Here is the input.
Amino acid sequence: IASLGLAAHADPVDDTLEIDGEPMITVAPAPEGHPFDTVYSGWLFREPETRAVEADSFENPGMLAVELGESIWNTVDGTAGKSCASCHDDAAQTMSGVGAHYPKWDADSGKPINVELMINKCRTENMGAEPYKFDQEEQKALTTYIKHQSLGEPVKLDLSEGEMQSWWNRGKEVYYTRTGQLNLACASCHEAIMGKNIRADHLSQGQVNGFPTYRFNTSGMVSLHNRFRGCIRDTRAEFPAAFSDELMALEVYVTWRGTGLSVETPAVRQ
Amino acid sequence: MFGGRKLLAASIAAAMTMPVLAAETAPADVVFDDFAVTSSLTGAPGSPEEGAKVFKNRSLGNCLACHANADMPDDLFHGNVGPEMNGVADRWSPEQLRAIIVDSKKVFGEETVMPGFYSLDVGINVRKDLVGKTILTAQQVEDVVAYLGTLKE
Here is the structure.
């Protein structure tokens, strides 16, 4: 079997992750109503070399995005003459643990809001600056920086806020809907055959706790909606726009599926 | 003369009906009978060599993504989502293999993750340029059936 290039592993590895000495929760009991008993971080499905790079901040290329995010945080932009720091001071304090609880309910728009859209909201409403375009480098860096302030913090959503529960319901429907010519749903790959290999890819539960993630094969940061769109595209389907209602609902639902896992941003993938 | 003309007429008729006889069965017209598709989709025999190409090619069958195949030791990264292909022809008849490839859901049930390769019963939001198209052509299905038929233990 090994001679066929078949990876011998089928399940998450039995390993513990510490990032710069701080322990991460990579295995957690699933929340009530979850199809699995246990949720696993995507880190446990990666090759030893990839895992090692994530465990060491000095080696993790995603830390460059954190540094870029920090410099944007402190840079004045827009007509109000403010930076993020003007209002939020030191992110290490004001943003600590914040990213672990997104998406949240946004009463103003009557929709869930994620970190990317919260950044845009502050830019337009509080700074008089242009919103970032989807996947603009600054958007990815600032999101990475904010999520990184929750490193180690367990993911937990408040579904009782606003209409979060109905968005969760809708996201669940999207998760189980088969798309494209290949006729596969998220659940086909990340639930039914989790742990198996599709070609060289070892299928994880498709958790979001490491996003934005650094990917070696594109040598850059990958946002969550970019990943969603990539997975949908791979079913040979048209994919929805980033931050569309469909993908926001999916973000709510998939984030919930990883309840209890530590935020690992920036996680490292091959 | 007379006989010759008759022969000619007959061969013209034959030539005109040939395309009809050889016409591919459209995806919606494939008949499943007891988990098998008895008749060839094209009327022409499949080529095992072409079938092997379809089996490994990522933009065609990409079967190797999910099935390990000991017959292809030079190709890296065999998946393990479905059963290994060694001896598949001992387990299934050509008619059953055709059914599995055309629309695996008709054999394994709705929940299978194996795509239907000659079926239009697909997911929502199909990529625009692929709407109404099957993953494989009828002849490619026949080629894969012929190839799998060589995998005996």
Summary: The helical segments of chain B are 2-22, 48-56, 88-91, 94-102, 105-108, 138-148. Residues 68 and 78 of chain B are 5 Å apart (CA to CA). Residues 24-148 of chain B form a domain with the Cytochrome Bc1 Complex; Chain D, domain 2 fold (CATH 1.10.760.10).
